[in-house]
Amino acid sequence: MDSFEIQKNSEFGRYLIASRDLKAGEYLFEDTPFAIGPKARTLCCCLECHCPVLGTAQGSRCEKCSWPLCEECSKLTEFSAHKRECELFQAAKCKFYNLPDPNMNCIQLDCITPLRVLLEREANMDRWNNEVDPMEDHRDKRFETDAWDADEQNIVGYLLGPCKLKERGITEELIQKVIGILEVNTFEAKTIKGHSIRCLYTKLAISSHSCTPNTTHAIHPSDNYKMHVRATTVIPKGSQLYSCYTYTLNGTMDRQQHLMEGKYFQCHCERCSDPTELETHFSSMKCRDCLYGDVDSSNPLDAEAIWKCNKCPMEIPAESIRESLKALQNEIECTNSIEFLEFSLEEYEGILHPNHYIMISMKSALIDSYGHMKGYLLAELPDILLSRKIELCEELLSILDIFEKGMSRARALMMYELHAPIVLYASSQYDIGHLTKLEYLEQLEKARRILNESREILEWEDEKVCTAKTISLKSLNYLDTLIMNANCEEPK
């Protein structure tokens, strides 16, 4: 029996519901992309493996069509991603025009992914009719916008004119429909070498959006970018399946703006409707008048709503809040040094709630630095910094337990980051006599539970791109040996 069924109404359009009670971690479906390709308004890249390529005359090119290919891919005798467009560019004699500056966005490549969708449509009309054509393109909201006009010139005009798609029965309306479908429905993915692309998945795009999703997906670039979708939590029969179309660790204002500008809808989920973001205070600022109140939007679904203190009469216009946050973000984007981040966290304590998304972004950057940056590798960290990394990971996990609860990839990666400093700190404290043998074993068992839960979730990931999946099993074996040795030795 299928785990889901497709329904439709005027509020959500098409959406997915659980056809039976689903367990956390239960496999829901796989999804093969209809097309993959470069993101819009990107730098020049290889049209086969999507790695960066110089857009200037010095860049490597395809020997057959003269469009960008890296040196490695230009030696291939058979193409995968680039095959059909290469044949079309040769037949139509479409030239690639070199850029004057390698740092310019390569507008010519904006046509590639729409072209790949149109060429796949010709080859697989049944799938187009059943899965892609019904997808939302929001033509009415995109029509005559600046983006529409730019696409009309850079993509529609180019594909109908120089690429001669008009001779194949392709119309302006169809191309704009494809552009809209890609803009609204694609998911970002990473190649095996870590380069960003966009993929058009037809099943997951039907699922409704929520800023606290109940599903997770793993994209496998080593298997033609096949996507595997699972439930992260228990989902009762008849409940909607939710994925997230934005970044869960952005505040409500940023999430709403991203969804409105990129997906053309306003999110009304429980989290977005709550000024405290489910009691996390993820967007809360500290009151500058009474100094101990939290300042939140009086209506998070209205971008211009007044922000109010929950302890005193203080009120702040939304525009002032946006300006303050922009200034703070500009400050921390100047450098990512550990010293500056730690200093900024302390400095912003009187301005932002400890769980504010800007504070969380800095804490996340510190987690990435402690244990990974030169001079701060795990084996080099003193106990005080091991303890600091544990503290930061636990703070992030407490947020993820609310926004991406259950068996989510984000929680798994954070637990993976957490287990090692727990082991190293406990070992160090045990060696100097600050922990008893029992306390030491308790910490090792805690680390093992954390790592094992992480490993179970990461088992779904593509090991070609998820190094944590590969390492976690070795780490688990090492922990088992450590626990066994500790059990056998005499107490210190």
The span between the termini is: 57 Å
Q: Based on helices, strands and strand pairing, what is the structural class?
A: alpha+beta
Calculate the mean pLDDT score and round it.
95
Give me the strand/helix succession.
Answer: EEEEHHHHHHEEEEEEHHEEEEHHHHHHH
State the helical fraction: 40-55%
Rg from alpha-carbon coordinates: 25 Å
Identify the overall geometry. globular
Tally the beta strands.
14
Strand content: 5-15%
Give the strand line-up of the largest sheet.
11-12-13-14
Largest sheet: 4 strands, antiparallel
Low-confidence stretches: none
Count of helix runs: 15
Report what the structure shows.
This protein is of the alpha+beta class. The chain is built from 15 helices and 14 strands. The strands form 5 sheets. Strands 11-12-13-14 form a 4-stranded antiparallel β-sheet. A 3-stranded antiparallel β-sheet has the order 3-9-8, with no helix packed on it. Strands 4-6-5 form a 3-stranded antiparallel β-sheet. The protein is globular, with a radius of gyration of 25 Å.
Essential attributes:
single chain, 492 residues, alpha+beta, 4-stranded antiparallel sheet, 3-stranded antiparallel sheet, 15 helices, 14 strands, 11% strand
Compose a concise summary of this entry.
The chain has 492 residues and is of the alpha+beta class. The chain has helices spanning 83-92, 112-123, 125-132, 139-142, 146-160, 172-185, 252-262, 270-273, 318-332, 338-347, 357-369, 383-403, 409-431, 437-458, 467-488, and strands spanning 4-9, 13-18, 27-31, 35-37, 187-190, 196-200, 208-209, 215-220, 226-231, 242-243, 285-286, 294-297, 307-309, 315-316. The strands form 5 sheets. It has a 4-stranded antiparallel sheet. A 3-stranded antiparallel sheet has the order 3-9-8, with no helix packed on it.
